[in-house]
Structure formats: C-alpha cells, structure tokens
Amino acid sequence: MCDSQCRLNRTIFIAVALLAFAPAAHAGGFATVGLSSTPTGTDWPVEITVLQHGRTPLDNVTPRVVISQGGTTRTFTGEPTGEPGVYAAHVKFPGGGRWEYSVRDGFTDAMPHTFPAVTLPGRVASPASPVPAASTDGGGGVDLALLIPGLLALLAAPVLLLLPRARRGSPEPVL
After folding, report:
1. Which of 3, 56, 69, 120 has the most CB atoms less than 10 A away?
2. Which domain holds residue 60?
3. 52: left (phi over 0), alpha (psi -120 to 50) or beta
4. Is residue 112 included in any domain, yes or no?
5. Do 45 and 88 meet the contact criterion of CB atoms below 8 Å apart?
C-alpha cells in the first residue's frame, strides 16, 4: 500500500525519468561520417560516406564539407554517387596554410563531424577578404529542446534525494 508521500515520490520519479529520456527521443538517432581521403593539396576530391547509427547507408541527405582558415569559411555540398550513403564533393581550398575542416552529415546536423586540421602547401589565403559560408543552417548553436529537459532533470535530482531522507525521520502512521 502506498501513502500520499509514496505516490508523490513515484510521480516525481516518473516525471524526472520522462524528462531525462526526452533528449534521446528528440535526437532521433545519429549518423557517422567517413571520408575517402584527407586533404593533401588545395584541390581535394573526396567521397563522404554517411551511415545512420554507424551501420545503415543514408540516402536522401545533403552532406556538406566546411573548411575554414581565420575569417575564411567555405562550404561544399556532396552529391549522390549512386552508391547508397556515398556522396562526392570537390573541395577547393583558396590557398595553402593550416585549414580546419568538418562535415555536416545532412541527417542530424546538431554537431558537425570534425577532423584534425591540415597544413596544405602553397600561399596562405588572404584573411583581408573573408568568404562567407555558403550554408545558412546557423551552425553549432545549443538546441534548447535538448537543454531544457536536461536542466529540469538536474534541478529535480536534489528533490528526489532529499524526499526519502525526510520520510525516514518521520514516524510510521498508526492505522
């Protein structure tokens, strides 16, 4: 038999559990990205393999390779190759020097897939005239739909820890 305090504890536990699993339900899975090569020069033809949950080839997505150096950022869109989950992009770096690059998989896009920076031969691209990214997806912000349930779960955790202690100190009701 469960008294009102027990029912309250159960209700709070269920609410926190639902909030804790809400981000996973919202995310809808993940994708992995593999590249056929790494850049070695300013002209880089690359194949991008996008796999849902790291296993199933993903068709009908639009992966994008994003390169950046200082204030210069460019985005190159992958095109389907005819092979499931494989897309081809032709990346042209504006110059040599140290470049960072990442891939947005076109499936979740919540977090870009990052790779180690490369140093390419040739003259460094001029930072005086940055090229804006072709992508307008807003990039790397915080998804409030994931953040808010997580914060609520963190706030509810101390309540769940304190309620059982307060109950232990109270005498058992006489029936």
Report:
1. 69
2. 31-144
3. beta
4. yes
5. yes
> Is 136 within the bounds of a domain?
yes
- The domain total for the chain is 1
Q: Report the candidate in 40, 106, 113 with the shortest Cα–Cα distance to residue 77.
A: 106
pLDDT in tens, 81-116: 999 999 999 999 999 999 999 999 999 877 899 999
Residue 127 falls inside a structural domain = yes
Is 165 a domain residue?
no
Query: Tokens representing 156?
Result: 């509810």
Q: Is the pTM of this model over 0.70?
A: no
Query: Does residue 18 contact residue 12 with C-beta atoms inside 8 Å?
Result: no
Q: How many CA atoms lie within 13 A of 105 on its CB side?
A: 25
CATH code (residue 67): 2.60.40.10
Are 105 and 85 a contacting pair, CB within 8 Å? no
The CA-to-CA distance between both ends of the chain, in Å, stands at: 12
Q: How far apart are CA 105 and CA 128, in angstroms?
A: 30
